[in-house]
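User: quick one - fold this with zinc ion bound?
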Amino acid sequence: MPICENCNHQWSWKQTIKKTTTLNPAMTCPYCGEKQYQTQKSKGRIGMLTPIVLLPLIIQMFFDVPAVILLSLFPILFVLVLFLYPFLVKLSSKEKYIGEP
Ligand SMILES: [Zn+2]
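Assistant: Sure. Structure tokens for the protein plus zinc ion:
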């Protein structure tokens, strides 16, 4: 779970979801009120979760799986990604555009 770089408080799962689902890249820490940004690295890691949601389509390419099963997989995988995702969020006090290792 993400830790605020300013006050070192750990955000809860619910708080993380709430803060990261807005379009605003600046997220206000619920503890100290400072603006926090998601690091590029954590954005990259979250991007790697996306293929999990597309997994049923890949399965379909190789195996003859009934569509009903595949369709029921989508919400399960979506919930799984949503559950995992706050664990990958890393916060920084600075908004970095380029050059972050
Ligand atoms: Zn804070």
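One thing worth noting: Residues 13-92 form one domain.
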